[in-house]
């Protein structure tokens, strides 16, 4: 990333308005059972109308 996008705050500024993040309906991001691990988060890129998984 270029100058001015250092750290978490910089990342937030860089993607603000470009990406929407979500966890699929019915999936608990942090489950009660510590033995379960769900790591996929969906990212929707508004300009290209592309949906990707992160994780």
Which properties best describe this structure?
55 residues, alpha+beta, flat
Describe this structure in words.
There is one protein chain. By secondary structure, the protein is α+β, with helices and mostly antiparallel strands. The chain has one domain. The protein is built from one helix and three strands; from the N terminus they run H-E-E-E. A three-stranded antiparallel beta sheet has the order 1-2-3, with no helix packed on it. Strand 2 and strand 3 form a beta hairpin.
Mean pLDDT: 80
- Which percent range fits the helix content? 10-25%
Along the chain, the helix and strand elements come as: HEEE
Low-confidence stretches: none
Our Rg estimate from Cα atoms comes to 14 Å
Ends: how far apart?
A: 20 Å
Number of continuous helical runs: 1
Q: Widest sheet: strand order?
A: 1-2-3
- What overall form do the CA principal axes indicate? flat
Blueprint (SSEs and pairs):
Layout: H1 7-15, E1 19-22, E2 41-45, E3 50-54
Antiparallel strand pairs: 1-2, 2-3
Task: Summarize the model shown.
With 55 residues, the chain is α+β, with helices and mostly antiparallel strands.
């Amino acid at each position: 990333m270029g100058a001015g996008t250092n750290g978490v705050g910089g990342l937030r500024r860089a993607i603000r308005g470009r990406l929407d993040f979500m966890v699929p309906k019915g999936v608990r991001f942090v489950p009660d059972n510590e033995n379960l691990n769900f790591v996929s988060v969906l990212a929707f890129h508004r300009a290209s109308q592309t949906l990707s998984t992160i994780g």
